[in-house]
Backbone:
């Protein structure tokens, strides 16, 4: 499964830079040439007008699927577009093989509208644990990386989320209402309280990066798709933050989480957000 029976850590020591190169190439060859040049026939709706897919998504995912599978023989890829075509492929997250979790264009709606707020997300997981992640924002050409136990970095500089400034309102990015049930909408209303400043989220990957950088205090998301969360959650963890569901347990990329959940700059902030989502006093 891994060359010469090496461990995941040994594989990453040899090939983390190769993964980064593959992510950059996918963006350079398949995404950026289509930015602001998409024809109507190159954009389709999936679940609704806010859930879009483009030729850039499809072709970048195919590029990454081939490149990442070649780097790690025996691994499998769980990509957003492949799962849309074949939902059963998502079950690979529960299997024995290492899994590449790929969101080729996170923030497709922004990409379609010509906005810069999109990124490419790749994570490597094994037995339900995210081991490494890559978050690439092509427009500013910024690459955030994390390897479990080795820290989080943005363009080579270590990230430290740190606690929020005392006394300041908590800045929290929340799910779009289109992706929430009535129960989840009610839970998110708990954030509309003095001392908290909720706002709709953009690209999930970029929101996680903002948390890891200490520019955003927390997220409150109500959906589980691993390609949206895996890379960012490890980035936040390795920057010193944490993530919790409403039951007080860490978010599981394999599913069955109590939603909404939060990722936050520090444990105290995560507990505060979870309490508000549960309808408890902060």
Residues:
């Amino acid at each position: 499964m891994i060359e010469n029976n090496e461990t995941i850590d040994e594989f990453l020591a040899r090939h983390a830079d190769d993964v980064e190169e593959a992510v950059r190439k996918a963006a350079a060859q398949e995404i950026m040439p289509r930015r602001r040049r998409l024809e109507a026939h190159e954009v389709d709706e999936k679940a609704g007008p806010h859930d879009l897919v483009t030729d850039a998504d499809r072709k970048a995912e195919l590029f990454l699927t081939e490149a990442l599978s070649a780097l790690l023989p025996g691994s499998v890829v769980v990509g957003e577009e492949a799962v849309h075509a074949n939902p059963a492929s998502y079950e690979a997250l529960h299997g024995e093989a290492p899994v590449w979790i790929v969101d080729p264009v996170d923030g497709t709606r922004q990409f379609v509208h010509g906005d810069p707020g999109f990124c490419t997300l790749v994570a490597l997981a094994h037995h339900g644990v995210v081991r490494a992640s890559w978050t690439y924002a092509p427009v500013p050409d910024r690459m955030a990386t994390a390897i479990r136990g080795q820290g989080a970095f943005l363009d080579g500089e270590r990230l430290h989320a740190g606690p929020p400034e005392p006394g300041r309102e908590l800045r929290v990015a929340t799910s779009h209402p289109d992706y929430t049930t009535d129960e989840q909408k009610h839970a998110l209303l708990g954030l509309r309280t003095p001392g908290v400043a909720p706002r709709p989220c953009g690209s999930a990957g970029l929101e996680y990066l903002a948390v890891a950088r200490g520019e955003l205090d927390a997220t409150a998301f109500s959906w589980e798709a691993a390609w949206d969360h895996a890379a960012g959650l490890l980035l936040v963890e390795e920057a010193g933050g944490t993530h919790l569901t409403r039951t007080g347990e860490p978010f599981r990329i394999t599913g069955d989480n109590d939603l909404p959940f939060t990722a936050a700059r520090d444990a105290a902030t995560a507990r505060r957000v979870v309490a508000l989502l549960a309808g408890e006093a902060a």
